[in-house]
Amino acid sequence: MNDILDMVKQRGVPSHTSNRVTDAGALSDESVAIRLGSKTGDPNVITISCSDELGLACDFARLIFEFDLDVVRADLSTDGKWCLMLFWVISRQGPSNPIKWSQLKKRLTTACPAPPSSLIFPFNKHLDPKRNSYLLQTCSTDRGGLMNDLVQALWDLELDVHKVNALTSPDGRAVDVFYLRDCRKFLAVSERQEEICNRIQSVLGASESFCRLSIIPDNEFPESLDLRMFPTLPEELFRDDCNGLGADLLKTAPTMTEFSINIDNSLSPSHTLLQITFVPRRGILYDCTRVLRDFNIRIAYGRLSTNDKGAGDLDLFILQENGNKLVDPDKQNSLSNRLRKDMSDPIRVMIVNRGPDTQLLVAMTVENNGRSRPRILYDITLVLKMLDISIFQVDSEKISYGDRLWEVYRFLLIEKSNSSFRNDRMRNYIMERIRCILVGK
């Protein structure tokens, strides 16, 4: 660990004992401490000290992203057994929709691994926290923004949407099916089911609405499917080279001229230095750490910093899972290519014709374990709600393509008399708004 601190000091990178950490305030006995900024616009500081495990930084970065917070600075350090992580975050939400800090703290604390048995007694290392999975079925009179309201309620209830199938019937009824995973642990099933149903019923409103929640085993969750199972999905939605047919309807990230990756083994005798320069955007730290977890890469020390001009730097001292440096050129190239793809262009948006209908397609890469990118369904439906665009049908699937796992949302849109989705200008506007809310600054 000392060689890391020497390297970062020589390069002008603050160590975890620097003023930046001191600035966060004294560490408390709690695993997670949150100190809010003294005035509007000041970063809020999240300090986490707990046992370490592979991919832990990804879990924390995902939760911070899920609560609509941008990480403007970060310091990560670990000795392989214990870690200290600090995140300087700013809210994207206005004062009318404040961050639920107590809920975030609870979720971050829950994500912390249990201490080693030598530090706490008694401790059952074989104890596996129980997270229930549910199948939610609802039926009610359709209305504008109903899907967005349902997804917001599910998030408030700390439920992850694994898959969705929704349809508007000819008589104007909205029929929705959600596969859900509970983020809370060790809950009495009957009480939790009652809480969820009551909340969803309040969103559905009318007394003739229907809500059914049933618990299901995890192995009943839909598996990922091959792209060949969906012949109507355009292949260019997943390709890195989007110059083929339909590329004019595909909205991807602009060329990131300031995005670069450097892997260096000369600065440290025991660690590989991964240096990334990027244009800041939503979820950039999460996208990086999820790739590292997928490659079983450990972070020994890391620092993220951004400046007022919109540039960001990420310096990480990394190790393979076996504790060795990353020296194999093929593994280096594979990691570099994956980081470049998933950090610069994780979201694809396309609008296509389906006969007389218009279909909105949104695809994004997900973790190898199938865990979805947070806030996707909520953010997309929020844009459609704000644009007063009604949804006739929506579904989602996990799809394998190449060496990556994708999640695809398909929205069949209802065209109104005062607007036309066949107009290229309107389509580009919709796609731009969706990209902006999903990954934009």
UniProtKB/TrEMBL annotation:
It comes from the Eukaryota. Signal peptide: none annotated. Keywords: Repeat. InterPro entries: ACR1-12, ACR2/9/10_N, ACT-like_dom_sf, ACT_ACR9/10_C, ACT_dom. PROSITE patterns: ACT. Residues 135-218 form the ACT domain. Pfam families: ACR10_N (PF24914), ACT_ACR9_3rd (PF24931), ACT_ACR9_C (PF24926). This is ACT domain-containing protein. The lineage of its organism: Eukaryota, Viridiplantae, Streptophyta, Embryophyta, Tracheophyta.
